[in-house]
Amino acid sequence: MVMQKRQDHLTNCEDIQVKILRYDPNSDEDRHWQMYKIPLQTGESVSILSLLQSIFENLDPSLAFTGPCEKGLCGMCTVVVNGKTRLACNTYVNSDVTIEPLNGFKIIRDLAVDRDRITI
After folding, report:
1. Is the dihedral of CA 81, 83, 87, 93 positive or negative?
2. Separation CA 17–CA 36 (nearest Å)
3. Which tens digit of pLDDT belongs to each residue from 40-93?
4. Is 70 helix (H, G, I), strand (E, B) or coil?
5. Any idea what the CATH number is for the domain that residue 84 is in?
């Protein structure tokens, strides 16, 4: 019975592609895109923050991002999602997505930016 449920879960999943703009000023010459495939149950939506946490915990522990409150109050998790500025904690997707660091700020690493240092 458990095996049947497991198989049903796998057949109702599809991979979404998460494309993230990566950059580590200490080691990278330039920004670059990195792709991740994340299984998502058909019809399910997931927050950008949950996607980032899943990538960090299961695929790539080098991914840097911020997102402490998970309630949409502090704004620390703000990133650019499919070209629009969004809070990662309360923006949900169910298909391929592109994620970039917040525009106009110095990049600390990957999606983490220095909110005290605006770039021009």
Report:
1. negative
2. 6
3. 998 899 999 999 999 999 999 999 999 766 666 778 899 999 999 999 999 999
4. coil
5. 3.10.20.30
Residue range(s) defining the domain that contains residue 59: 2-118
Residue carrying the six token digits 């923050």: 49
Residue with tokens 């927050």: 47
Reduced to 3 states (helix: H, G, I; strand: E, B; else coil), residue 5 is helix
Q: How far apart are CA 15 and CA 17, in angstroms?
A: 7
The tally of domains found in the chain comes to: 1
CB 80 within 8 A of CB 87: no
* C-alpha span between 61 and 84 (Å, rounded): 26
